[in-house]
Amino acid sequence: MVTAETSQPVTDPTRIGLTKEALKQAFVDNLFYIQGRFRDVATANDIYMAAAFTVRDRLLARWLKSAQHFKESGARTLCYLSAEYLLGPHLINNLINLGILETAREAGEELGLDLGEILATEEEPGLGNGGLGRLAACFMDSLATGQIPAIGYGIRYEFGIFDQAIENGWQVEKSDTWLKNGNPWEIPRPKITFPVRYFGHTEPYQDEQGRLRIRWIPGLVVEGVAHDTPILGYGVANANLLRLWKAQATESFDFQAFSTGDYYRAVQAKIEAETISKVLYPNDEPAVGKELRLKQQYFFVSCSIQDMVRLHLATVGPLDTFADKFVAQLNDTHPALAVAELMRILLDEHGLAWEPAWDITHRTFAFTNHTLLPEALETWPIELFERLLPRLLEIIYEINRRFLDEVRVRYLADEARIARLSLIAEGETRRVRMAHLAAVGSFAINGVAALHTDLLKTTVMRDFHELWPDRFHNVTNGVSPRRFIVVSNRRLARLLTSVCGNEDWMRDLTALRRLESLAEDQGFHEDWRRVKLAAKDQLARWLAAKTGVRIDPQTLFDVQAKRIHEYKRQHLNLLHIVGLYQRIKQDAQFRPPPRTFLFGGKAAPSYAMAKLIIKLINAVAEVVNGDPQVNGHIRVVFVPDFNVTTGQLLYPAADLSEQISLAGKEASGTGNMKFAMNGALTIGTLDGANIEIRDAVGPENFFLFGLTEAEVRQRQADGYRPSDIYHGDPELATIIDLIDSGLFAHGDKTLFRPLTENLLRHDPFMVLADFRAYVSCQTLIDEVFQDSARWTRMSILNVARIGHFSSDRAIREYGERIWKVEPVPIQV
Ligand SMILES: [N-]=[N+]=N[C@]1([C@H](N)O)O[C@H](CO)[C@@H](O)[C@H](O)[C@H]1O
């Protein structure tokens, strides 16, 4: 007889079985019992949901087992606090991580279903902007695969990053209704809710022990409700937790207001509260100074820290061992308020004295900086803090007072240094420096690539590095080989497995080194080229279906896919294309190998220059693709709505990966790793992780150009005059004049003027300074591409030597150097 005690649902094969029959039975059950559909009337979404629930059930077993074991073992747990998670589609990733992709395909076929169609139905959760958000997702995958107990905390945005449509060459943002059909991968936890306070004032009081305490009388309280998504590791039974918070009103309906007929006020609190987790701010770098953004940051930080304290009290006990149980990584400054929030909870809710509270706090947090761009370093006006988070501001003032006392002693009242280090930026509007709060409140600070970390130590965080050199670490980014090879490029994965004789490389990417022995093998070259051509063909078919644009897989696929930003220099790429176009038209002898230029990337809606660059890409495409004189030689395509799903098509199909940022600007880059992992060769500057990729794959297998970071600094110090370069380079001048001429704007000479004027007057990212070197490098690439044996050899060696750039390695380094966490294997 089934009793609550005895029934062990995790053993029931129809719920957890991985066999074809078990999957088929579960699918049929779910279609009926969850979707309430007979097969013949089921929609594509019903089919997808039934498949998703079938796979989810197999995750749940591993997840609950993991959670139970972590709890019982009191394992030290890593908490990743990130405002963004760019997870990508779940179903395919979970089928791979469960090792049942082929079984599921066969089960589907026997039920008359096409797994490819089911996979294409899933709407990806776009809860991030770009590299930072995707890095968080890769890290969650590697934490589970590395069997490290971890919780990812973030915000369950109702609307993620906008869907990008291109209308008349312009980006048009469409709201991202990823939840419209429901989300089978999450489990709402209505009982795991926390109050989040805003506004109001604070007042001192004496507690029953006569100690002076502070209470915060908020003007508004909203609730955060947990929504849990299991994150299963690859080839292991470990599954970690991604806990995203949704905001709701404490009272979702005001009956008094309703009965007086004030229907809006009846639901006002509900609307206001829900606005907090309504939408992701679509800015990849520039800090967003909006009050709602600060509300969002405090919302998820407060829920997450309250949850960590609850878990600790429930599973371990008194809070003095909190920092032994938990270590929390701050993914940039977006969650930096966590430092002050943990202090608030320890002081105000648990009555700890300042020193023990600070000791716990400081031993709990570590901070990752992801950018040096001044406009991206978050600071908030004191006035806003006073109004919105009065208690947090008091605590920040006290943290600062004690910190500056320490600095004053150390540097004998060096007022200039104190002002530079202070958490408060004095000036017209006094502001809180969030990077300083994160740095003072953390025991470790890291950059995301070697050059970036060095620059962090010598520029933006120089004073902190002089103060605490031992706190600084470098952990170069990495990406998940499961998502970006096994899921994205199954043909390559099969070839790699056949070379390696097993699938161990999927968990240890350095195993691909053995490919080196095949770098000269002509037979293997053919296999290698076949895999690349198939991926290019797949992209061409998808693009034709999606946009009607036809591209030839036999041409060199030159891809630049990343957020649109002037420092990433999509416009440098465009200058080269316009130059090519002009030469092909004017010089019948000049016939470089045919190339297809593919661009992809979203621009922040408020970033006018980035949107103009998208327009110019499409305008150049219209003219070039429409010109019979150059047809068959060059083609330009803007791939709309670049996200994880389209990335999974672009990374495997690229021959050439464009990583052309101005040296010193791209902290790391992660697209560079994904392209190289799929056999693309890189044209790039000595910037971010490009440097380490070039060192790893060998300078002879990397197309380098451009000023180094030191040369950039020197040229700027010497006074950089872009117009001199314009006047000194006739071809460049012709190109800029062509863009100015209205050729790409149906005669309108003004449309692209802002761009050309900016290049000639300021050129802040030194596009003109690197132009000539870039064009020469592209000419070299044309030569090398025509030697397919050489190109293929270089491509093989890129993959053979890319192992270091797995997020598994990055997580291992964080674990050993910063978090001091041990793997806890789970048996199922
Ligand atoms: N914010 N931020 N920073 C970035 C990216 N834009 O998201 O973080 C990424 C992840 O660390 C870096 O690779 C990239 O260089 C950097 O610009």
From TrEMBL:
The keyword Transcription does not apply. Its cofactor is pyridoxal 5'-phosphate. The keyword Ribosomal protein does not apply. It comes from the Bacteria. Keywords: Carbohydrate metabolism, Glycosyltransferase, Pyridoxal phosphate, Transferase. PROSITE patterns: PHOSPHORYLASE. GO terms for molecular function: 1,4-alpha-oligoglucan phosphorylase activity. It is an enzyme of class 2 (transferase). Pfam families: Phosphorylase. Its EC number is 2.4.1.1. It catalyses: [(1->4)-alpha-D-glucosyl](n) + phosphate = [(1->4)-alpha-D-glucosyl](n-1) + alpha-D-glucose 1-phosphate. NCBIfam families: P_ylase (TIGR02093). PANTHER family: GLYCOGEN PHOSPHORYLASE, GLYCOGEN PHOSPHORYLASE, LIVER FORM. Belongs to the glycogen phosphorylase family. Phosphorylase is an important allosteric enzyme in carbohydrate metabolism. Enzymes from different sources differ in their regulatory mechanisms and in their natural substrates. However, all known phosphorylases share catalytic and structural properties. Allosteric enzyme that catalyzes the rate-limiting step in glycogen catabolism, the phosphorolytic cleavage of glycogen to produce glucose-1-phosphate, and plays a central role in maintaining cellular and organismal glucose homeostasis. This is Alpha-1,4 glucan phosphorylase. It comes from Thioalkalicoccus limnaeus.
